[in-house]
TrEMBL record:
A GO molecular-function annotation: ATP hydrolysis activity
Extent of Basic residues compositional bias: 352-379, 468-496
InterPro entries xrefs: ATPase_AAA_core, N-DRC_Component, P-loop_NTPase
Keywords, comma-separated and alphabetical: ATP-binding, Nucleotide-binding
Entry keyword annotation includes ATP-binding: yes
Gene name tied to this protein: LOC118416640
This protein's name: Dynein regulatory complex protein 11-like isoform X2
Biased composition (Basic and acidic residues): 331-351, 414-430
The ATPase AAA-type core domain, residue ranges: 583-714
Region of interest called Disordered, as start-end residue ranges on this chain: 316-430, 461-500, 815-837
SUPFAM superfamilies, A to Z: P-loop containing nucleoside triphosphate hydrolases
Taxonomic source organism: Branchiostoma floridae (Florida lancelet)
């Protein structure tokens, strides 16, 4: 697509932002909304519209090549991501659920579920590609030194004895002879069967013409069916319903679009390099050309100020300190409020001078009386705050000001800017000059301040010599003492930090040690788009009927993106967005819990630390060893953020009773892990993710106290299974034809997880079967046999997860809110009945 396409997307996004800012920043504060359903609809509508903005801004930022536009876009994009996360928190508080359904809102806005698919910004990894490559290279070098596969290779390379060799040859030779013998016997039996049938039939009784007609009938029917099938397949290919089998990958529209996007990213890097060079050259040019003129004009203005103050007060003024802004404070344009404050201060000073010393006691008494009145008023104000109208109000946002600032910048600079002469979309030199002129002016002002301070000092010295007055040194010494006091205060604060157990070691050495111990592991490349799942089309209907639906895998993907990926990818978002320190993914085996952890690491470029009890068993023994391990993990995680700390089988950490036969000491992290999570701050881009197959075996209070958010991953529903079968068969190099009834296969595999379905596909689509696909198409029946050997997830196990989830804090809060709503409805009905009577 062209530059104009992405500029248009940017403009459309800002049009929507302008509309939303009118709602977000009203002239009068809105009244609280008493109806929880109405409040949810309002917040959900804003949430959906912000997702649309996010999608447009992400596409624009990824493909716009203009370096100055990209800076404005990035600021607004981070603001949109942060606002989405804030609204997500509000929706969770209103519905007491992590999963939300927007069917009615999508219908009103004329959108499809794909229009609100949560994108993952590509800049999370693209802008750190060099760092990630270097880190991957370092990790590969450390693993190569360790040689983890050496033992396995040695076992495989053991020489075979002569007896074993002869035995293997004999087995294969006997098998070959047996197959040949079976083949000969089968041919003999078939020949005998044909001879027996021919003897029974006797001489042919049908006439030649009739036989020819029958042959023609059968042949014409076969030929027509084959022609019709081919024409139908060609039609489906023409309208894009089936992929073209013979088309090379390089000629597909998808490949060409990807190639164009990659070329634009290369152009982005070139334009950014030119922009950085222009920043230096333009600043140097401004300093050379305009610097001397600026210096002269500033000196003239300051000298004029000296003379004006001398004429008005009879003495030279004190020069403002650097901390106060230097000479910039002299010519600063003051607002009317600042002028009023200065006038009031002067009036107070005059009043104090005129007042007598004897009246000080009375004044202090009056002030105390006023304070008492104020205290009473304060109490009344507090009562008013407590007696606020009941209802829901949006919490103040940390990101709306950033959105408003970016929108103002877009409207003022870029919306109506004529770029007809900038076809290649390189940097705008005039904008650079405007920014750099201020920097040059600031640098020149510092030089001028030094010169003018010296000049003022000489002027004062000359006047003092004439008048015989001493300089004012007491004030300066007093200021210095104050500054020293501040420094000592800062030193006192630094002493409160935790002790660094590895202060004498570098991060590189700690990183290498954790890799050698197998705690810092290499993450497989898995993208969030590989986690397949379809939108839940019955969610709103069931929830309206007060039936809590099980989330679809699409919903799980959205929640994990919101809690795990979007905050980790951007430092600006993570510092101000609602902080999610830990996340628990729970569900039956094979539902993709570990795959989601790997997807979070891949999409954000995060390090993966594995603190599973089986992985850390026998490593860093003892209490001091455990403290050292936790210190090293979190220190490296903070230095090389973003980082993901993975805890597999998280329920084992909080087991009620540990089996005596378990050698892994699963409760080892029970105290240290919650303590470490509690110490995480907003500037630490770290998230602790636990996975659990049997959360009902552990102490619920301890588990929910450790993990802030809990996401239940169910078995895939019919729509998700249908999508998975289609995608997985194609991924396994299978071909989808009319012979393969995917709908029936999806219906039959109710209860099977994605991992089990993929196992069945791998067993069917062997190399030999893939070669036969052109002659013998794939059928649904072939998958039944491998699936029959796998135990599915039965309803009893799913019900156990549902029952456990109902006693989690969020589900309990939801049950309490629903009970409260039912009571309110009954009260309203009783009031109506009373009025009728």
């Amino acid at each position: 697509m062209s530059h104009d396409t992405y500029n248009t997307l940017w403009k459309q996004a800002h049009t929507t932002i302008t509309d939303l800012l009118e709602i977000e920043q009203p002239e009068e504060p809105p009244k609280p909304e008493r109806d929880r359903l109405t409040a949810f609809q309002n917040v959900a509508t804003m949430y959906v519209r912000y997702i649309q903005i996010f999608r447009k801004l992400e596409s624009s930022y990824d493909q716009i090549v203009h370096p100055q536009k990209r800076r404005v876009l990035r600021h607004v994009l981070d603001g949109a991501i942060g606002r989405i996360l804030e609204l997500k928190g509000e929706l969770t508080g209103l519905e007491f659920s992590e999963f939300h359904y927007f069917d009615d809102i999508l219908s009103d806005l004329k959108l499809t579920p794909n229009d609100i698919e949560m994108p993952i910004p590509k800049y999370f990894t693209l802008e750190r590609s060099k760092i990630l490559k270097d880190r991957e290279k370092l990790l590969g070098q450390i693993l190569a030194k360790l040689g983890p596969q050496d033992k396995d290779l040695k076992e495989e390379e053991k020489p075979m004895s002569l007896e074993e060799s002869i035995r293997i040859i004999q087995v294969h030779e006997r098998a070959r002879q047996g197959r040949l013998r079976a083949k000969f016997m089968r041919e003999i039996r078939m020949q005998e069967e044909r001879e027996r049938q021919a003897a029974n039939r006797g001489a042919p009784t049908i006439e030649p013409d009739t036989a020819a007609i029958r042959i023609q009938k059968v042949w014409k029917g076969f030929a027509q069916r084959k022609r019709t099938k081919r024409e139908r397949e060609e039609e489906m290919m023409f309208i894009g319903m089936t992929p073209l089998p013979g088309q090379p990958a390089k000629n597909t529209p998808q490949f060409l679009a990807t190639k164009t996007e990659s070329a634009r990213r290369v152009t982005q890097e070139e334009h950014e390099r030119e922009y950085q060079q222009a920043l230096v050259t333009i600043k140097e040019k401004l300093r050379e050309v305009e610097g001397p003129e600026m210096k002269e004009s500033m000196q003239d203005q300051i000298r004029q100020w000296f003379i004006e103050v001398r004429d008005a007060t009879g003495k030279f003024p004190d020069y403002p300190d650097e901390d106060e802004g230097g000479s910039a404070m002299i010519f600063k344009e003051k607002t009317p409020e600042e002028v009023e404050a200065e006038m009031a201060a002067k009036a107070e000073e005059k009043g104090k001078k005129k007042g007598k010393k004897g009246k000080k006691g009375k004044k202090s008494g009056k002030k105390k009386g006023k304070k008492g009145k104020k205290g009473k008023k304060g109490k009344k104000g507090g009562d008013d705050e407590e007696e606020e109208e009941p209802g829901f109000k949006l919490a103040p946002s940390q990101f709306v000001p950033a959105l408003a600032e970016g929108n103002t910048q877009f409207q003022g600079v870029w919306k109506e800017r004529d770029e007809s002469d900038n076809f290649s979309q390189k940097h705008d030199a005039e904008l650079i000059k405007e920014d750099k002129r201020k920097e040059v002016e600031g640098e020149v002002r510092l030089q001028v301040d030094e010169l003018m301070r010296e000049e003022l000092k000489n002027l004062k010295a000359a006047v003092e010599r004439d008048k015989g007055k001493k300089g004012k040194k007491g004030k300066k010494s007093g200021k210095k003492k104050k500054k020293k006091g501040k420094k000592s205060g800062k030193k006192g604060k630094k002493g409160k930090k935790e002790k660094d157990l590895t202060a004498d070691r570098t991060i590189e050495s700690l990183y290498e040690e954790l890799v050698q111990e197998g705690i810092l592991v290499r993450c497989p490349k898995v993208h969030m788009s590989d986690y397949l799942g379809e939108y839940s089309y019955l969610g709103t209907t069931l929830r309206t009927a007060n039936i809590e639906p099980m989330p679809s895998l699409h919903d799980v993907r959205r929640v994990v993106t919101e809690y795990g990926i979007l905050p980790l990818g951007s430092q600006a978002v993570h510092e101000q967005a609602p902080l999610v320190k830990s996340l628990l993914l729970t569900g039956p085996r094979g539902t993709g819990k570990k795959m989601l952890v790997h997807a979070i690491c891949t999409e954000t470029g995060a390090n993966l630390f594995d603190l599973t009890c089986t992985n850390i068993a026998g490593k860093y023994p003892g209490k001091s060893g455990l403290a050292m391990m936790m210190h090293m993990v979190f220190k490296v995680a903070r230095q090389l953020q973003p980082s993901v700390i993975f805890v597999g089988d998280a329920e084992k950490t909080f087991l009620k009773k540990v089996p005596k036969t378990d050698p892994t000491d699963p409760k080892r992290l029970k105290k240290d892990l919650p303590k470490a999570i509690k110490g995480m701050k907003a500037e630490d881009r770290i998230v602790v993710i636990g996975t659990s197959r049997q959360p009902f075996d552990c102490e619920l209070k301890a588990l929910t106290g450790c993990y802030q958010k809990i996401v239940l991953i169910p078995r895939p529903d019919y729509a998700s299974r249908f999508l998975m079968w289609q995608s997985m068969i194609q991924k396994g190099q299978g071909i989808l034809t009319n012979h393969l009834d995917v709908s029936s296969l999806s219906k039959v595999t109710d209860g099977y997880t994605p991992a089990q379905m993929w196992t069945a596909i791998q067993q069917v689509l062997t190399d030999r079967r893939i070669q036969q696909l052109s002659k013998r198409p794939l059928t649904s029946v072939e998958f039944i046999s491998p699936l029959a050997r796998i135990d599915p997830i039965y309803k009893e196990e799913e019900e156990a997860f549902k029952d456990w989830f109902e006693i989690t804090p969020l589900s309990k809060a939801k049950a309490a809110a629903m009970a409260e709503d039912d009571e309110d409805d009954e009260d309203d009905k009783n009031k109506k009945k009373g009025k009728k009577k």
